[in-house]
Amino acid sequence: MKISQTCNSNLIANLNKYVHDLHANLYPEHFKKYNFEDNKTFFQKIIDKEEFTFLLLEDDDEPLGYAFIEFKAYPGTTFKKAYKSVYVHQISISENQRKKGYGSKLMDEITNIAKANGINRIELDYWFNNEIAKSFYKKRDFVKYREFVYKDI
């Protein structure tokens, strides 16, 4: 198993299908159906930006998943202290490769990247009905510290 950084937007757009389909199935009112070309265009626009990093997970040279992370610096305000974090936008693992420890390996790599950059916080969010994500992050000691709620009118 190997984890490396990638700038291959075609590969990321292909691997994105797994997490995108999950979201579209759970929340069809919010997510469009997966479209490779649209996703590729999105990733092409951001993949070279300094604040974003894409980690590719391969086993026997076969791409199985990726993580999409962002380095964030929150300025201090009158109310809050300044801090930095590594924000996990997405982790996507091929459907037939889940529950084999690959997501954990990506999270370990994200932790190592944060530490190497002097950052002591990893942040993320997930959709409430995504029980897979909820269980995965709970097992890795992520703590809920804020809730986002809405009301349709």
TrEMBL record:
CDD domains: NAT_SF. This is GNAT family N-acetyltransferase. It holds the Pfam family Acetyltransf_1. SUPFAM superfamilies: Acyl-CoA N-acyltransferases (Nat) (SSF55729). Keywords: Acyltransferase, Transferase. GO terms for molecular function: N-acetyltransferase activity. It comes from the Bacteria. PANTHER family: DIAMINE N-ACETYLTRANSFERASE (PTHR10545), GH14572P-RELATED (PTHR10545:SF29). PROSITE patterns: GNAT.
